[in-house]
Every structure is written in C-alpha cells, then in structure tokens.
Amino acid sequence: MEFNLSSIEGYIANHLRLFILSVIGLIVLAGIVAVSVFFIAVRGEEQTMVPDVTGKELTAALLELQVKELYPRIQLRYTQTSRDKGLILEQDPLPGSIVKAGRRIRLVVSQGVVVNRIENFVSRNIDEVRMDLMTLQTAAGGLPLLTIKEPMMYEFSPERAGTILAQKPEPGAEISGPLSLEFVVSRGRDNQTITVPQFTGLTVSAALELISSTGINFQFAARERNDGERGETVVSQSFDESSVIPVNTLVQLTVTMPERLADNEVFGVFSYTIPRNPYPLAVRLEALFPSGEMRRLITVNYTGGEFTVPYKLPSGTVLILSMLNRELLREAIGD
C-alpha cells in the first residue's frame, strides 16, 4: 500500500489551520464576554426613585418599598398620641431621591404613647410622682406626655404633707394625647406643733445634724466670741429648750466665729432665699472642695425663705444648693 506524502501534509496543514482558528475564536469570545461584564459592572445596579411613605401605615409602606426593590430599616419611637400608632413618622432618604435598587430606607415608626391609661396617683407623694413623670418624658424622647397643672390645690388633712388626696382625670381614663393632671395635695395637719430641742452649747456641725433630724425651721447668724466662749458654737436660740411652738415657726440660732482659721481657710454664713412652698421640701447643701472631694453640710425638709448655714471651708470650695435633686445655686467661696 502506497502513501501519498503530499496528501498527508495537506491534511495536517488543514487541521492545523482549523485548530489555530478555533483558538483565536475562543480568545475573541472570551474578550467579548470580559468587556461585556466590565461594562455591566460599570453601569451598576438599576436605579429607582424613593416613594413617599410618611404618614402611611407600616404594611402599606413596606409594600411600596418592595415594588421599588428597596428594603426597610425600622426604628420605633413613642409619640404624644395613640392615634398615630403604626404610622411612618420619618423616612431617610427623602421622597423623590434617586437611589440604587436594594438600598435600605430608614423608617421611623410610631409606637403611640408610652402609657395608654391614667394610673392611680392618690396616696402617693407628689414629689415621687414628679420624678416618675420626668422618667416617662425621657422614655418618650423628651415629649411631655403628662404634665402637672400649676398651681396645685392644697388642703390640710391627716395625711402626710405632700400626699396626693385627689386627682383629675380619674384613674383608668384613656390617654389619646398630651394631658394635664390636676392634683389636690395635703398640707399635713393643721395647727401642728413641735418641741424645740436644746441647741445652745452645740457645735455648728452638731446643730446642723440636730436640725436635719428634727426638721425645725431655722436661721443662723454669726458674731465675734466673747471672753470664755468657744468658737463655732451655738450661744443663743430664740426659743428655749422644750418650748412647744407651731410647726415652721422660725428658730433663730446665733453662733460664734472660729477662734482661728488655717491658711487659705474661710468662715462665713451661706445665705440663699428659697421660694415659699406649701409644705417642706428636701433641701441639700454640699461643699465641693478644690481637691474634688464632695461633702454634705446639711439635708433638711424646708418650707422656703432665707436658708442660712455657717461654714468653715478652704478657699475656692464650691457650695452647691439643691432642692428635690434640682440644683438651685452653685457658688465659690473665698475667690
């Protein structure tokens, strides 16, 4: 059997050309695919317009976002009325914004009011109720949902001073929005009396402790020492020991000035006029030393008027006066 060498060479050459052309075609095809992918990536995702869902119910808003291929990021917030519960309060981005499909849209949804009904405040202390309402306002994002109508009504009663005797609206009333509470508050018993303790001979610090425990209405004055007298000591009181006087009657106490003062030390009588209250409220005077140490000088229930407290403290100390945990005054001494 004879082989034609030229035929074999032609066959190989034809197949070789076919192979080369196939490889070139594959390379060109891969290039086209790569370029297409590049331009698709450069073009990015499809863009869409953000719909206006503010004021709509949450379910309706979610459906509108779904149609636009947008996704929600939900935040909850208390409001001043129960009527907007479940409604969209805010949205970000704003309506009409052009964004890429798949973007998350922040939706602020109303939870309604923090509470739905008025609780029973009768027999509770008015100061505690004030604090609770402040906490409620904080939970509602600073919105004053429930407020106390001023001025309140006060009546003498056997209940302890500051006790709520009656309220309006009645307990259980529904809350649909901001509401003002009206209270009748006890002044305590009428014609109450107190027995004056022995202050004469006590040091200033001991006298302040006794005032704190008895709640007597007091006022301090200071004078120079006489021969034989100790410094920083009560030397007279306007009512004798064991005197029975009406509650809130002012007892004037006179103290002597210190025998000596250390370097950079200051003696004086702190004075501040506190507004009159229908019944005694918790008042606190503290000293903030230059070192950062804090010391309480006195805590007492006080009806108001001129509040006076003797002190001997380092210069630069800051005196802080508070009533019901609310700061009234902050002043430095000796500056």
Tell me what the structure shows.
The chain has 335 residues and is α+β, with helices and mostly antiparallel strands. It contains 4 helices and 20 strands. The strands form 7 sheets. Strands 6, 7, 8 and 9 form a 4-stranded mixed beta sheet that branches. A 4-stranded antiparallel beta sheet has the order 17-16-19-20. A hairpin with a 5-residue loop joins strand 16 (281-288) and strand 17 (294-302). The longest helix is centred in the N-terminal third of the chain and has 39 residues, at 5-43. The N and C termini lie far apart (128 Å). The model has no long low-confidence stretch (mean pLDDT 86).
Question: Briefly, what is this?
Answer:
This protein is 22% helix and 36% strand. The protein has 335 residues and is α+β, with helices and mostly antiparallel strands.
Question: What's the SSE blueprint?
Answer:
Elements: H1 5-43, E1 47-49, H2 58-67, E2 71-77, E3 88-92, E4 98-100, E5 104-110, H3 126-139, E6 146-148, E7 153-156, E8 164-168, E9 179-188, E10 193-195, H4 204-214, E11 218-223, E12 234-237, E13 244-246, E14 251-256, E15 265-274, E16 281-288, E17 294-302, E18 305-314, E19 318-323, E20 326-332
Parallel strand pairs: 2-5, 6-9, 7-9, 11-14
Antiparallel strand pairs: 1-4, 3-5, 8-9, 10-13, 12-14, 15-18, 16-17, 16-19, 19-20
Biggest sheet statistics: 4 strands, mixed
Low-confidence region ranges: none
N-end to C-end Cα span: 128 Å
Structural class determined from secondary elements: alpha+beta
- State the total count of DSSP E strands: 20
Q: Shape, please?
A: elongated
Number of contiguous helices: 4
Order of helices and strands: HEHEEEEHEEEEEHEEEEEEEEEE
Gyration radius, rounded = 41 Å
Strand content: 35-45%
Oligomer: single chain
Average of pLDDT: 86
Helix share bin: 10-25%
